[in-house]
Amino acid sequence: MKRKLADIAHSRAGDKGNTLILSLIPFQEGDFDFLVENITAEKVKAHFGFQVKGEIIRYVLPELKALQFTCFEALTSGVTTSLAMDAHGKSLSYALLEMEIGEGV
Predict the structure, then answer these.
(1) CATH of range 3-101; options 3.60.21, 2.40.128, 3.90.1010, 3.30.1360
(2) HSE of 43, CA atoms in CB hemisphere, 13 A
(3) Which of 27, 32, 58, 103 could be joined to 41 by an S-S link, Cβ 3.0–4.6 Å?
(4) In whole angstroms, what separates CA 19 from the centre of its chain?
């Protein structure tokens, strides 16, 4: 049975120009290792293929039990010059949580 990241984690988005920063934090610390093993930059890139044009870099933050993804070329031309409805990319944290994950969580 497939589940969504929203079942086990929450996310927050931030922006700087055309770069989007997404955090991914499990509700339960015990799910952190699952996230590290299964939520790679490549999987996030595939999930956001329609949105993120550039590279995605994943940072593992074991002290915080969190992951951070830096997504380049993700917000059209940036907040101050973009005509996109979600210029800051805040709704993309919810889009990340829509990613399907496998069983075992």
Answers:
(1) 3.30.1360
(2) 14
(3) 58
(4) 12
**Do residues 67 and 36 make contact, with C-beta atoms less than 8 angstroms apart?**
yes
Q: How far is CA 76 from the centre of its chain?
A: 17
> How do the pLDDT tens digits run along the chain, 105 residues long?
788 999 999 999 887 888 999 999 999 999 999 999 999 999 999 998 888 999 999 999 999 999 999 999 988 765 555 445 454 555 676 677 778 888 654
Contact 24, 66 (CB under 8 A): yes
Rounded CA-CA distance 71/58 in Å is: 9
Q: 13 vs 1, 6, 103, 104, 105, CA distance in Å?
A: 28, 14, 26, 27, 24
How far apart, in whole angstroms, are the C-alpha atoms of residue 103 and residue 40? 17
